[in-house]
Amino acid sequence: MEDVAFWVLAVAAVASGVAVFVVDSMARATFALLASFLCVGAELLLIDLHYLGVLVILMMIMEMLVMAVFMVMYMMNPAGLMPMTMLHNTRGALAISGGAFVVLAAGIFTVPWPERAGRPPRDPTLALGESVMGPKMLVMMVIGIAILATMIATVVLATHRGRYDRDGAP
Amino acid sequence: MTLETFLLLAAALFCVGLFGALSQQSIVMLMMGLELMINGVVAAGAGFWFWVSPGTADGQVLVLVAITVMALEMAMGFAVVTALFRARDVDMTDDAGDLRG
Amino acid sequence: MVEVVVLGMLAVAAASLNGAFAGRPAEPFQEAARLLTLQRRRTARADVLLTRIGVVSLPLAAALAALVVPFGDRAAVGSGVGVVWFNAMEVVAWGAVWLAGWGVNSAFGLVGGYRFLAQGLAYELPHMFALITAALAAHSLDLRIIGEAQGGLWFAVWMPAAFAVYLVSALAMAFWGPFGHPVGGDAAGGVLAELSGPDRLVFLAGRYGLLTVAAAVAVPLFLGGGAGPWLPAWLWSPVKTCAVLALLVWTRRRFPVLRMDRAMTVAWTVLIPATVLQMLVVAIVVV
């Protein structure tokens, strides 16, 4: 049962990932990417990562909706009503990514993976929480500072008004 | 459902994303390719956690970092596109080649 | 599953109550019958697939969120991360509303969709802080455990700021009452402008569903879950849900619609600091 769910979700994740670069409409491309993320989130739910799986679903929905706004804003042909191609070096890209996949797949099946060490804890969420608030505290602090730096940097880059010019009045 | 199949899924997602990142002209489409690649990293990190070392939370922390990186990458990417677009009406990678030698 | 069915019935009751406030309690049923028999209006070059996905995912998200809502100590799916699940399902509304507005290929629909996204960015952060505050006090993300943790004192009493912010964001996530700008009359109905026939019925049903689920989750989060005298726990939860839901429905005809850029200013300058301070107080008291 779990195997069937895994394969269905895996095929759906990769297929919608491919669809991102195939469909004409930017709205469809964004939501195809979202579908891919949702499938991976569901895969995480399958291997007991309930918190992280739901977190992926939650964050990716919000992120893709923000993405949709920018896609529609910047693309010449957001609704795909006039099909056009926006690719360069397609053959090279296909060769590189196809080659990378062959190498990765070969590696996956030839490398002798280590034996499983330990059992999954009864509550992985608790384990994660105690880890990031204990031995892995540094990771959490770096993430926090990175988020703050990104917030400041994005606002500086994206705004062209000062802080006293609230409503865009000249 | 084994470690190998899970990693195969991750590799497939990563390579589809790689294709997009290499072949797309528009910066926003290119970023969708990057997001797909990080999606593969999330799947791989979760797979390693479950089948290699479920005893410690390292794999979970890696997934958490990957999700954060994805959000930060998108925010920075759009800020750069906005600045670029505002400066010279450009949203294509081929037009932003200032550092070309 | 009985919990989900009961919440569905409460959603219908909420629609009827909304009609009753206008003096016509049977109006939603007449409207539903009318919409079911009405032919769909078609727009030129609409993206039918995306519209359908958006319209259907709104009630679907409400139903999925209802899965983790406990009545007493029993829920349809006893999830250890119920709070995060509810949050994720309620964010699906962003996608649903934007898709329904985008797909019909109409300017007013698109305006409504964008309004909801802006509103979503305004309400989501304070909303998440309010959810986390309750989870923090109970040491758990499980809605059942949070409900049971309030044996002595309801969270609504000693974290009033978080409770108030939660109620405000419940209105905002269902674009109801003062947050009805995405379907505002000034944009000819916004997202609803081009939805007709069964599509419109399903979309509106999903909106009542979201409002009901938001009211139902307020009970384990802030109102003591199934705690109460005389009645059994499984009955107290729906009774409290009815009270919260009636309050939410009542706001619709009592408050003017708030423009979403003003909502954004209020959210970032008032609601977020208030919830952060509330969380600090709770964290100091608990730890």
TrEMBL record, chain B:
GO cellular component assignments: plasma membrane
Membrane spanning stretches: 33-52, 61-85
Domain of life: Bacteria
Known catalytic reactions: a quinone + NADH + 5 H(+)(in) = a quinol + NAD(+) + 4 H(+)(out)
Localization in the cell: Cell membrane; Membrane
Keywords recorded for this protein, A-Z: Cell membrane, Membrane, NAD, Oxidoreductase, Quinone, Translocase, Transmembrane, Transmembrane helix, Transport
Membrane topology: Multi-pass membrane protein
InterPro entries assigned to the protein according to its UniProt record, in alphabetical order: NADH_UbQ_OxRdtase_chain4L/K, NUOK/Mnh_C1-like
Enzyme nomenclature, EC number: 7.1.1.-
GO biological process, one term: ATP synthesis coupled electron transport
Broad class of where this protein is predominantly found: membrane
Gene Ontology MF annotations: NADH dehydrogenase (quinone) (non-electrogenic) activity; quinone binding
Assigned protein family: Belongs to the complex I subunit 4L family.
Function: NDH-1 shuttles electrons from NADH, via FMN and iron-sulfur (Fe-S) centers, to quinones in the respiratory chain. The immediate electron acceptor for the enzyme in this species is believed to be a menaquinone. Couples the redox reaction to proton translocation (for every two electrons transferred, four hydrogen ions are translocated across the cytoplasmic membrane), and thus conserves the redox energy in a proton gradient.
Assembly and oligomerization: NDH-1 is composed of 14 different subunits. Subunits NuoA, H, J, K, L, M, N constitute the membrane sector of the complex.
Record protein name field: NADH-quinone oxidoreductase subunit K
Organism: Actinomadura darangshiensis
Species lineage: Bacteria, Bacillati, Actinomycetota, Actinomycetes, Streptosporangiales
Automatic annotation (TrEMBL), chain C:
Keywords: Membrane, NAD, Transmembrane, Transmembrane helix
A GO term, aspect molecular function: NADH dehydrogenase activity
Membrane topology of this protein: Multi-pass membrane protein
Source organism superkingdom: Bacteria
Main location: membrane
Transmembrane segments: 49-71, 91-117, 153-176, 208-227, 233-251, 263-286
Signal peptide residue numbers: none
Compartments where located: Cell membrane; Membrane
Phylogenetic lineage: Bacteria, Bacillati, Actinomycetota, Actinomycetes, Streptosporangiales
Pfam families linked to this entry: NADHdh
InterPro entries tied to this protein: NADH_UbQ_OxRdtase_su1/FPO
Keyword Nuclease set for record: no
Organism annotation: Actinomadura darangshiensis
GO biological process, one term: aerobic respiration
UniProt similarity note: Belongs to the complex I subunit 1 family.
This protein's record includes keyword Disulfide bond: no
Name the UniProt record assigns to this protein: NADH-quinone oxidoreductase subunit H
Coiled coil: none
One GO cellular component term: plasma membrane
PANTHER family given in the database record: NADH DEHYDROGENASE SUBUNIT 1 (PTHR11432), NADH-UBIQUINONE OXIDOREDUCTASE CHAIN 1 (PTHR11432:SF20)
